Amino acid sequence: MCTTCGCGEGNLYIEGDEHNPHSAFRSAPFAPAPRQMMNITGVKTDNFSPTRSEAGDLHYGHGEAGTHAPGQSQRRMLEVEIDVLDKNNRLAARNRARFAAKNQLVLNLVSSPGSGKTTLLTETLLRLKEKTACAVIEGDQQTVNDAARIRATGTPAIQVNTGKGCHLDAQMIADAAPRLPLDDHGILFIENVGNLVCPASFDLGERHKVAVLSVTEGEDKPLKYPHMFAAASLMLLNKIDLLPYLNFDVEKCLACAREVNPDIDIILLSATSGEGMDQWLSWLETQQCA
Description:
Elements: E1 13-14, E2 51-52, E3 58-59, H1 74-101, E4 105-111, H2 117-128, E5 134-140, H3 145-151, E6 157-161, H4 170-176, E7 187-191, E8 208-214, H5 221-224, H6 226-231, E9 234-238, H7 250-260, E10 265-268, H8 277-289
Parallel strand pairs: 4-7, 4-8, 5-6, 5-7, 8-9, 9-10
Antiparallel strand pairs: 1-6, 2-3
Helix pairs in contact: 1-4
């Protein structure tokens, strides 16, 4: 369960797992699950009131847990979060130790849906093809489309479908990574589910989180989703080839990112035009040698 939104695993599927009860699962036309009737008589709910601004805006993130769920006290939500994240962090530490033993650079790519993450990744892999061994773990709620796009570049990839889950976790990486043929000193790219909220809390055992933000999303995205950009080592400002057609203030965006995370590295690039790609590849090379 996600401690931020309460999502469940749903139909978890990792390619090649013939013993998984959902291994034969493929995307089907989506149909909402039947609504369950619940008898809430006698259920004790927490009397939690949001803070109000002078303009009348409501803010639910001021309690101990930093979030809100109907029927759950702030203390109980905090207890659940500590328990879930503690288990995940122990698994992430094991993953990190395994990757370090092989001197593998592992990057967790995070973004909103539609930021151009997969297109950027395929272009990156094509440019690295003759230089560095790479492999990819693709995270999506459904379909194996992105893994197929990655494999078309000649790079080994495995798809992890999270079902109702809105993020990857350390156990999923522990299950998927050993199935990929990746040499020592190689790079493992983990493309997380498109979501700037929940993946911020879940360590996968990566060396760095890399936040991808496109110029079509708005300059203040780092301020709206501060936990993700605070956790990221690098922000890639993508699709800069579209800047002539947009009213997007690059300097304001960079200032917003650095307000949240003064130490964040930032690279402006376009997978389509190729601008900034050399700087991105240079950053990868530096991290490999670190």
